[in-house]
Amino acid sequence: MASRPFITCHVLDTTTGRPASGIKVTLNIDSPTSTSLPTLHATTNSDGRVTSWTDTSPEALVEQAGATNHAKDGRLRWKLVFQTEAYYGVGKAFYPHVEVPFFTDLNTEKSHYHVPLLLGPWSYTTYRGS
C-alpha cells in the first residue's frame, strides 16, 4: 500500500450531503520569492477525496522549496484551488473557484495536513482536518 501524501483534501457537496467527485484541484507553494515551483494536480475521487497528486508530490516540493529558500520562519505557505464552477456548471456557482491558502510547519516532523472543504454553489467552509 502506498503511503499517503502529507497534504490531502476532501470535498463534500452540502446541497446533496454527498462527496463531491470529479472536482479538479491544484496545489502549489505560494512563494514569496519570484522563483516558481511546479503545480500539483488531482481530481477528487468517488469519495470526494484527493489521496494522490500527479506530476510530483508535496514532499518533493518541500525539498525543492527548502533548496531554493521558499520557506519563511520555518513555514511554507501553500494554496489549494478547487474548480467549483466546472463542478456545478457555468453560471450555477457564485465562486468559479475556491482558493484555500494555508501554512505547513517545516519544524514539525511527519505532520499530515488534511484540508476538508464543505462546498455549496453559494458558500464554502474549510478547516484543518485530521
UniProtKB/TrEMBL annotation:
Q: Which UniProt keywords apply?
A: Hydrolase, Purine metabolism
Record GO biological process: purine nucleobase metabolic process
Q: In the Enzyme Commission scheme, what number(s) does this protein have? A: 3.5.2.17
Q: Which residues form a coiled coil?
A: none
Domain Transthyretin/hydroxyisourate hydrolase, residue spans:
7-129
Q: Name one GO molecular function term.
A: hydroxyisourate hydrolase activity
Report which reactions are catalysed by this protein.
5-hydroxyisourate + H2O = 5-hydroxy-2-oxo-4-ureido-2,5-dihydro-1H-imidazole-5-carboxylate + H(+)
What this protein is reported to do is described as:
Catalyzes the hydrolysis of 5-hydroxyisourate (HIU) to 2-oxo-4-hydroxy-4-carboxy-5-ureidoimidazoline (OHCU).
What family does this belong to? Belongs to the transthyretin family. 5-hydroxyisourate hydrolase subfamily.
Subunit structure comment from the entry: Homotetramer.
Q: What is this protein called?
A: 5-hydroxyisourate hydrolase
